[in-house]
Amino acid sequence: MAPRFTANGKRIGRPPKNPQTAQAASPVSAEDAAIGRAFRQFMNRYDGAGRGRRMASWNAPSTGPNQSINAALQVLRDRSSDSARNDWSSESIIQKWTTTLVGIAITPRFHRIKSKERRQEINDLWTDFVRQADADGVLDAYGMQTLAVRSWIERGEMFGRRRYRKASDGLAVPMQVQLLEADMVPNFDTDTYTGLPVNNKIRSGIEFDNRGKKIAYWVYKTHPGDGVWSGAGGTPDATALVRVPAEDMFHMFEPKRIGARRGVPTLAPILAKQRNILDYEDATLERQKIANLFVAFISRSLPSLDPTDPNHQALTGLESEIDGEAAPLLPMKPGLMQELEDGQTVEFAKPPDAGTSYSDYMRTSHLGTTAGTGVPYELAVGDIANVSDRTLRVVINEYRRFASQRQWQIVIPQMCQRAVEWFADAALLAGKVSIEEREAIVRAEHAPHGWEYIHPVQDVEGKALEVKNGFRSRSSVIGEQGDDPDVVDQERADDAERERALGLPVSGVADATSSTAAPDPAANTNRDDVAQAELERIKRVEAQTDALREAARATAARDRAQARQDELHQSVLALLRDPESV
C-alpha cells in the first residue's frame, strides 16, 4: 500500500511495533515525493492560504464575531475618540459621515393619516415633541440625530433610552429620549448576576432568554468614565447597573459579521496608519526646524588673538558677543560682503534637508485612510486640484450610494423608526391619537435630507425630463430632496393665489383653463422629439466644454514649449558672449 502524507509532507500511519529491530528509514522515493507535492498543491489552491516563507508570519486567529471584538473594543473606542480630538483628518472623516447621513434632519411623514386636518394636527404634535424630545434638555430631536450618528461613527455604537414622564410635566407627549454612549452598556458575559432572571444570560452587556431573544440591557447609572463608578474591571458591580427592558432601548451600530452584538468604530481599520502619519508629520516638522538653523563657523590659520583685541572682529567689523568662552559670536547682516584676511575661512553648518517627498507621502497615506472609512479623499481632505468635474461627480455619486445604504439600513430602522414608535405609544397613552391613528403613525415614511445639486442646471433639467417622459413622479423628485410633496403643493397653491390677488404674473402654476382642455395630440406626438432635442442640446454643451478644456491644455503646452525655447535661446546667447562660462 502506498504511504499517505499530510499537507506538510509528513507520513501518515503508526510507527513500527518493534522500533528496536526496525531497519533504518530509507530515503523518500521520487514517487512518494511527487505524491506529497501534488497533495500540497491540491490543498493550497489559494495563495492567501499558503504557509510558505511569505505567509509564515501571518497568524490569523479563528475567532467568532464577538470574541474578536471583546478584548479590543474599549481600546478601539478610546483611541478613536482620542484621534478625533487631536487629528484633523479623523475629525474630518467623522464630520463628513455625520453631515452626509443626517444633513439637517431625517423627518417622518404621516401620509397614512387620510384626513388632512387630522394629519396636520399630528404633524403639529410631532413638531412639539421634536422641541421637547431631549431628556437632557440640550438639543431637539433632529439635533439628537446628529449627535447620535456622530457617536456611532466615532465610538462604533450608541444607545437610546425611552424615558417616561408624568402628565404634570407639561410635555406634548409624556415621553423623552435619552442618548447614551457605548460605554454606558458594559461589555461583559455572565450566566449568574444579581437581578438576572432564571435561564437568562448576559452576553456583551445584553440580556438574552433561552431562545436568544433580547430581553434587556444592563446600563450604568452614570458614565463610567466620569469617575463615579468604583469597580475595577471584570464584571461590574451590580449596584452600578440598572436593568432596562429591550423595548425601552434602541441600539444603533453596524454589525461587521453575522451574529455580532456590538459595533466597532469606523476609524478602527486606519487607527495604526493615522498614528504613523502623525509621527511622520511631527518628524518632518522637527527636521524642518533643524534645517532652518543657519550657522557659520570662522576658522583661522593665524595665531589666536586676545578676545578683547579689536582685530578679533576684523572679519565683520561689527561688535561681537563673548559667550563665556574665548570664541566670540559674530552677527550677520543682509547684503553684507566681507573680505577675509589671509588665513581665515568660513564654513557653514549642513543641517539635514527637509526633503521633498512630504506632500506625496501625505497624499498617498490619506488616500488609504479615507478609503478605509468610505469617505472620498477629495471630500475628507478638500484636495480637488487635479480632479475634473466629471470624475468628482462619479466619486460623489458612489459615496452617496454608500451613505444611502447606511441611512436606510442602519440609521432609519435602528433609531428613527424606534423614535416614531415611542412617540406614537406616548401619544396613544396620553389620549391624543386613536389606536388606528397609532398604527398609521408607526408606518410613517422617513425622508432623509436631500443631496445638494452637483451641477444645478443639468441636474434639474434631467429630473424635469424624467418627470415629463413618465420615468418617475414629481412627488418622488420632491421627496428625494427631503421635502414633503403635500407641503410643496400647498405652498405653490398659496403662492399662486397671492400672486393673482396682487396682480402679479403667476409662475410655476398651470393656467386654470388648460387643466380642463383636451390634450393636444401634436404635443403628445412631439414629446419624444422635444426630449431628444433637449438631450442633443446637453450633449452639445458638454462637447463645447470639452473643446474649451482641450484648448486650454493646448495653450498651456504651447506656453511651456515657448518658455523652454526662450531659455535655450538665452543659454546660446550666453555661450556666444562668454564661451568659458559654460
From TrEMBL:
Q: What is the lineage of its organism?
A: Bacteria, Pseudomonadati, Pseudomonadota, Betaproteobacteria, Burkholderiales
Which parts of the sequence are annotated with region: Disordered? 1-29, 475-494, 503-527
* Protein name (record): Phage portal protein
Which terms in the Gene Ontology molecular function aspect does this entry carry? Answer: structural molecule activity
Q: Low complexity: which segments have biased composition?
A: 510-523
One of the GO BP terms on file: virion assembly
Q: Name one Pfam family in it.
A: Phage_portal_2
Q: Which InterPro entries match?
A: Phage_lambda_portal
